[in-house]
C-alpha cells in the first residue's frame, strides 16, 4: 500500500508523517500542493504546519490549492484522508468535515503530551484500538478549539462522528483534561462515511518510545491493516 | 545622484567618532559621501565590527580536532559529530529590539539565528532561548515576557523548528533591558557545508527571498548604544518577522545547495545587503559590484542608502556558479520567492554600489569586515568597588531557627526556580520528531536519525554569580553547562557564547567583560570545549543601571549511545538516592539569600575545576555502565531544591523522598548552599554497590542519602512537605506571577 503526504508551502510536519508511514513499513510519497496527481496513493495525509503561513484563518488558503481538488474528489469517492492538526483545519475549511477550529480558549499556543479516549474502533483509522482505549499523543497548536453549533453538535454525536476525546490518564472526560476549550472535549472527528479523519493531536509524533510514546503507531497500523485487506479502498 | 552633504554632526549621528572618521578619509583618500558614511557607520558599529571585544575574544580557545569551521570564520561554528555528519550551532542576542518591541524583537532574533544555520547548508533541528527579565511584579516586565514568548513561539512554531531548552531568569538588573539570547542548532552532512563566500570573476550575485523595505534601517547602530527614554522612538529600527517566508527560504536555500548551484550563501541580518556583500567578498578574497536599482523593493523611492542599510528579514545573498542562474531561479519560483541577479563578482577587492550605472559607493571590502580592517580597540578596565564589598558576608546575620519547609515552598515558587512550563508549552518542542528529552530537564536531548547517537543541548549562565564575580561566574557557567550535559549522559564538545554587557567605554563594565572572557577561556580549556563563535552585545543599559554581566553559554554535547540518555526525575519508589560530591558550609551568592532575604551577596561557592571534571567523568562512566536511573545537578537553590526537582520532574508521576544528611554544617548551608560539583543520582539495589565502588575507585566522594518514596519529601528533621503542596508551589507559580490581572 502507499501513503501520500501533501506538502503545502508552510507544512512542517510533512516529513514527520512521511517518517511515520515509513516506520510501519509502507511506501510513501510527498504530494506537491500545485499538483493534482495523487500518485495512486491509498491514503492521503494532510500534515501539520502553517500552510501558506496561516496569517488568515488556519487552513483558509490551503483549501484552494490544486491538490485539494483531487483530495476532495478522492474523499468523495471513499478514499481515506487523514488531517492532522493543520490538516484537520484544512479539512474543515474544505467542508470535508463539519465545524470549525477556533483559537484555543486560553489564547496561547500549547505543545504537550495529552491523552485521548478512543470513541470508535470501526474505522479504518482505529481498528487496532478498543473503544475506551486511552492514547498518549502530543498536541501542538494555537487553533484547536473545536466548535460547532449546538444542533450540529448533536447531529455529530447522533451519527457517532467523534473519534477521539481529550481525557485524563484514566480515560475520564474532564474539563481539566481539555487543553483548548473544545466542545465536548472533541479531539478528532470523522465524516458520516467514516473515510475522512481530522484530529488535532499528532499521532506521527508518538511512534517511538524514545519520543515519549508509541501510541500513534496504533493509528498507522490500523490504516495499514485496512488497506492491506483491500476492503472498500478506492485507489486514487 | 544628489547625496546630502556630509557634516560633522551627521558623522556624530552615525555613531562614528572623529578618530574613526579621519581613518575613513585615509582609507578612501577622500571624504565619504552620505551613502558611504551609512555603510561605514553600520559596519564599524559595535554590533558588526566587534571593535571593543575582538582583541579579548581572540584569547578564547578556538582549536579542536572536531571543529570544521572556527569562530569568526563563518556564520556559525561547525562540529564534526561522526558518521559523516556535522552540527552547526550559534547563539545570538536580540536584546535592544526586544526591549522596545518584544514580539517582533524576539521573533526576528529567532529568525536571524535560524538563517545563520541554514545559510551554511544545515537544516535547523533545534532552537533554545536564554531569557532574562526584571521582576514579574513589574507590569511592563510582564508585558515584555508575554510578547517575547509569543514572538519566539510564533516564529519557531511556524518555521517548524523545535524549541527544546533554554532559561528564563528574573532579576531587577534586567528590568529596563531584558536579554533575549536565541540559539539555533542545525545538522548537515560534513561534506555539504557551504561557506559565506563571493569569489571568482563574473559569478552572478543574487538576492533571494523577501523584498527589501524600510524596516530595520540602522538596527545594528541602534543595538550599539544604550537604551534611553527615547529608545521607544527607535521602534521603526526593529525588523518585522515572517516565519512563513523563512520556511520557504529554508527549503529553497537547501535545495540550491543540494543541487550544487552555489559558490557561497550568506543571510542578511544586521546591516543587510551591505554586510553580506562586504563580508562575503572579503572571505573570498574578491570584489563585488551591485546595481542597487535591481534590488526588489517594497516601496517606491527608496534611496541606495536605505536599500543598503535595510534589515528587512528573510533575505539571502547568493553567489551563484556562473551559468546556473536559471536553475536557481527555477527553484525559487517553485517556492514562490523572488530571486534577482543584482551584481557579480570580480577581483577588485572593492564593494561597489551603482545606481542606474552611476557609482554611489565604493569601499574596499576588507576595511568593512571583521578580521580585515575594522577598528580594534583595547579598553580600560577598573574593578568596581562593589565586587570586594559584596564578597563579604557575615552568616550570623541570617538566623537558622527558621521553618525550612516553608522556605523550601517559597523557593520552589520563586520565579527563578519554579516550573517554566508556562513559557515552554507555548513552543513546539517536538516537531521533526527527534526530541527525546524536551524542556525542563538538565539538558535537552535530540536523537540523530540513522545513527545510535544523540545530541545534548543546554544554555547556562547565572547572572548573579557573574555580577558578584565575573571571572568565577563565567567559569561556573561553563562548568554547569558541562555538568548538565553529563547528567544527560553526554560529553560537552564545544560551546557558543552570547556575551551581554553594559557600555564598554565604562572601565567598570569592561572589567566585567574582560574577567568573564578570561574565566570562560580557562574553563573551556579545562573541559576541552572550544568556542565556535557567538555574539557580543554591549550597551545593555538603561538610565538606571547596566545589566548583570551575563556571558550566556550554549553548549553542544554528544551522547554516544541513545541508551545512555538520562533524565533528572526519580523513576521508582524504593530506589536508592546518592549524592556525588561534597557539601561545604557556604551560602554566598545563593538563590536562597536572594529569594528569602532579598540579597545578592557573598562569595561564590568554591569550584575546583579538577574536581568538577572528575565528578562529571565519573558520572558519565556510571551512566555508560548502566548504573544510574536519574541524575540531576545541584545548582540554583542547592541540594533541597534539587531533590524537590527530582521528585517533581513529572507532574503526573510524582515521587517523594526520605533523605538523611549527616554533614555537620549550618542547616541553611546544608539545604540551600550552592556548592558546585554535586550531583544527585538514583539507582536500584542491584547497581548501588557497583556505583559506590566506581566512585570510590575514581576518588570521587559519594554518600547514600536516602530512598525514593511516594508522598512526601523529608530531609532530616528540617523539612517535611507533602508532595501535593510542593507540586502546587512549583507548577502553578509562574502562571500566577505572569497572568495576574490588574485591578
Explain this structure.
The complex is a heterodimer of chains A (236) and B (743). Chain A has a single domain (2-228), classed as Rossmann fold, CATH 3.40.50. The mean pLDDT of chain A is 96. Chain A is built from five helices and eleven strands. Chain A is of the alpha/beta class and 236 residues long. In chain A, helix 2 links the parallel strand 3 and strand 4. The termini of chain A are close together. Helix content of chain A is 22%, strand content 25%. Chain A has helices at residues 14-23, 66-76, 86-93, 150-158, 217-229; strands at 2-7, 27-32, 43-46, 80-84, 100-102, 110-118, 134-141, 145-147, 162-167, 186-190, 196-199. In chain B, strands 8-10-7-11-9-12-13 form a seven-stranded mixed beta sheet. Chain B has a seven-stranded mixed beta sheet with strand order 21-23-20-24-22-25-26, with helices on both faces. In chain B, strands 1-2-3-6-4-5 form a six-stranded mixed beta sheet. In chain B, helix 7 (102-118) runs parallel beside helix 10 and helix 8 (139-159) runs parallel beside helix 10. Chain B starts with 7 loop residues before the first helix and ends in a 5-residue tail after the last helix. In chain B, 62% of the residues are buried. The mean pLDDT of chain B is 95. At the A-B interface, helix 1 and strand 6 of A face helix 8 and helix 10 of B.
Amino acid at each position: 500500500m502507499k501513503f501520500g503526504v501533501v506538502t503545502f508551502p508552510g507544512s512542517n510536519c510533512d516529513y514527520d508523517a512521511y517518517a511515520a508511514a515509513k516506520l510501519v513499513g509502507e511506501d510513501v510519497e510527498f504530494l506537491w500542493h500545485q499538483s493534482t496527481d495523487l500518485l495512486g496513493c491509498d491514503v492521503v495525509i494532510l500534515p501539520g504546519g502553517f500552510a501558506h503561513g496561516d496569517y488568515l484563518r488556519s487552513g483558509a488558503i490551503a483549501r484552494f490549492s490544486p491538490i485539494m481538488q483531487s483530495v476532495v474528489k478522492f474523499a468523495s469517492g471513499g478514499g481515506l484522508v487523514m488531517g492532522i492538526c493543520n490538516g484537520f483545519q484544512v479539512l474543515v475549511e474544505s467542508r470535508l468535515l463539519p465545524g470549525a477550529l477556533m483559537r484555543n480558549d486560553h489564547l496561547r499556543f500549547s505543545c504537550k503530551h495529552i491523552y485521548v479516549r478512543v470513541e470508535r474502533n470501526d474505522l479504518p483509522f482505529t481498528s487496532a484500538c478498543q473503544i475506551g482505549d486511552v492514547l498518549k499523543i502530543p498536541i501542538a497548536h494555537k487553533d484547536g478549539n473545536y466548535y460547532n453549533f449546538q444542533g450540529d453538535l448533536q447531529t455529530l454525536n447522533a451519527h457517532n462522528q467523534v473519534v477521539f476525546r481529550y481525557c485524563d490518564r484514566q480515560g475520564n472526560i474532564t474539563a481539566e483534561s481539555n487543553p483548548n476549550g473544545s466542545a465536548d472535549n472533541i479531539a478528532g472527528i470523522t465524516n458520516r462515511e467514516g473515510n475522512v479523519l481530522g484530529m488535532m493531536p499528532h499521532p506521527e509524533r508518538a511512534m517511538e518510545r524514545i519520543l515519549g510514546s508509541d501510541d500513534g503507531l496504533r493509528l498507522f497500523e490500523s490504516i495499514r491493516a485496512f488497506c492491506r485487506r483491500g476492503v472498500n479502498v478506492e485507489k486514487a | 545622484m544628489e547625496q546630502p552633504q556630509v557634516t560633522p554632526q551627521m558623522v556624530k549621528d552615525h555613531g562614528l567618532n572623529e578618530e574613526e572618521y579621519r581613518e575613513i578619509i585615509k582609507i578612501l583618500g577622500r571624504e565619504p559621501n552620505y551613502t558611504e558614511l551609512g555603510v561605514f557607520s553600520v559596519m564599524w558599529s559595535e554590533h558588526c565590527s566587534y571593535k571593543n571585544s575582538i582583541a579579548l575574544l581572540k584569547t578564547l580557545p578556538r582549536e579542536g580536532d572536531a571543529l570544521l569551521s572556527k569562530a569568526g570564520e563563518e556564520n556559525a561554528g561547525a562540529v564534526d559529530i561522526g558518521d559523516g555528519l556535522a552540527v552547526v550551532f550559534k547563539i545570538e542576542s536580540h536584546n535592544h529590539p526586544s526591549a522596545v518591541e518584544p514580539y517582533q524583537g524576539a521573533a526576528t532574533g529567532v529568525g536571524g539565528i535560524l538563517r545563520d544555520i541554514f545559510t551554511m547548508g544545515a537544516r535547523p533541528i533545534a532552537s533554545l532561548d536564554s531569557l532574562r527579565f526584571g521582576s514579574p511584579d513589574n507590569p511592563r516586565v510582564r508585558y515584555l515576557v508575554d510578547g517575547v514568548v509569543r514572538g519566539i513561539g510564533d516564529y519557531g512554531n511556524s518555521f517548524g523548528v523545535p524549541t527544546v531548552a533554554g532559561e528564563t531568569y528574573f532579576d531587577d538588573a534586567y528590568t529596563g533591558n531584558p536579554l533575549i539570547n536565541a540559539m539555533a542548532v542545525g545538522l548537515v552532512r560534513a561534506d555539504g557545508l557551504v561557506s559565506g563566500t563571493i569569489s571568482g570573476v563574473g559569478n552572478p550575485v543574487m538576492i533571494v527571498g523577501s523584498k527589501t523595505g524600510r524596516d530595520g534601517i540602522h538596527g545594528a547602530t541602534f543595538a550599539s548604544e544604550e537604551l534611553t527614554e527615547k529608545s521607544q522612538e527607535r521602534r521603526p529600527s526593529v525588523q518585522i518577522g515572517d516565519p512563513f517566508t523563512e520556511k520557504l527560504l529554508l527549503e529553497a536555500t537547501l535545495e540550491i545547495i543540494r543541487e550544487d548551484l552555489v559558490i557561497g550563501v550568506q543571510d542578511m541580518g544586521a546591516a543587510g545587503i551591505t554586510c553580506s556583500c562586504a563580508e562575503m567578498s572579503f572571505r573570498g578574497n574578491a570584489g563585488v559590484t551591485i546595481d542597487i536599482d535591481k534590488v526588489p523593493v517594497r516601496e517606491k523611492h527608496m534611496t541606495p542608502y536605505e536599500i543598503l542599510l535595510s534589515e528587512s528579514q528573510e533575505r539571502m545573498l547568493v553567489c551563484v556558479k556562473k551559468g546556473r542562474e536559471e536553475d536557481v531561479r527555477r527553484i525559487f519560483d517553485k517556492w514562490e520567492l523572488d530571486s534577482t541577479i543584482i551584481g557579480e563578482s570580480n577581483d577588485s577587492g572593492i564593494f561597489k554600489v551603482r545606481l542606474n550605472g552611476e557609482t554611489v559607493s565604493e569601499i574596499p571590502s576588507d576595511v568593512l569586515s571583521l578580521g580585515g580592517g575594522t577598528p580594534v580597540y583595547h579598553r580600560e578596565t577598573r574593578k568596581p568597588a562593589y565586587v570586594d564589598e559584596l564578597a563579604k558576608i557575615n552568616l550570623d546575620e541570617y538566623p537558622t531557627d527558621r521553618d525550612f519547609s516553608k522556605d523550601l515552598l517559597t523557593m520552589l515558587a520563586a520565579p527563578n526556580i519554579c516550573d517554566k512550563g508556562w513559557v515552554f508549552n507555548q513552543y513546539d518542542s517536538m516537531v521533526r520528531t527527534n526530541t527525546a528529552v524536551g524542556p525542563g530537564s538538565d539538558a535537552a536531548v535530540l536523537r540523530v536519525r540513522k545513527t545510535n547517537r544523540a545530541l545534548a543541548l543546554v544554555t547556562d549562565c547565572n547572572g548573579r554569580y557573574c555580577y558578584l564575580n565575573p571571572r568565577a561566574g563565567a567559569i561556573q557557567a561553563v562548568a554547569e553547562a558541562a555538568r548538565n550535559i553529563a547528567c544527560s549522559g553526554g560529553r560537552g564538545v564545544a560551546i557558543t557564547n552570547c556575551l551581554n554587557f553594559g557600555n564598554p567605554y565604562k572601565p567598570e563594565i569592561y572589567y566585567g567583560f574582560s574577567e568573564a572572557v578570561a574565566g570562560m577561556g580557562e574553563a573551556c580549556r579545562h573541559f576541552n570545549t572550544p568556542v565556535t563563535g557567538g555574539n557580543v552585545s554591549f550597551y545593555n543599559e538603561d538610565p538606571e543601571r547596566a545589566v548583570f554581566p551575563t556571558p550566556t553559554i550554549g553548549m553542544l554535547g554528544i551522547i554516544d549511545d541513545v541508551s545512555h540518555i538520562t533524565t533528572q526525575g526519580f523513576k521508582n519508589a524504593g530506589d536508592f538516592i546518592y549524592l556525588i560530591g561534597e557539601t561545604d558550609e557556604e551560602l554566598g551568592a545563593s538563590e536562597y539569600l536572594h529569594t528569602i532575604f532579598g540579597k545578592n551577596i557573598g562569595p561564590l561557592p568554591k569550584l575546583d575545576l579538577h574536581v568538577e571534571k572528575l565528578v562529571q567523568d565519573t558520572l558519565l562512566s556510571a551512566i555508560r555502565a548502566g548504573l544510574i536511573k536519574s541524575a540531576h545537578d545541584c545548582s540554583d537553590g542547592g541540594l533541597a531544591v534539587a531533590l524537590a526537582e527530582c521528585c517533581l520532574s513529572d507532574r503526573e508521576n510524582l515521587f517523594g523522598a526520605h533523605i538523611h544528611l549527616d554533614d555537620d554544617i549550618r542547616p541553611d548551608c546544608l539545604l540551600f548552599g550552592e556548592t558546585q560539583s554535586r550531583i544527585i543520582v538514583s539507582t536500584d539495589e542491584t547497581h548501588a554497590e557497583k556505583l559506590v565502588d566506581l566512585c570510590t575507585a575514581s576518588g570521587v566522594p559519594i554518600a547514600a542519602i536516602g530512598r525514593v518514596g511516594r508522598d512526601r519529601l523529608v530531609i532530616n528533621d528540617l523539612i517535611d512537605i507533602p508532595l501535593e503542596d510542593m507540586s502546587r508551589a512549583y507548577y502553578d507559580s509562574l502562571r500566577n506571577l505572569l497572568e495576574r490581572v490588574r485591578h
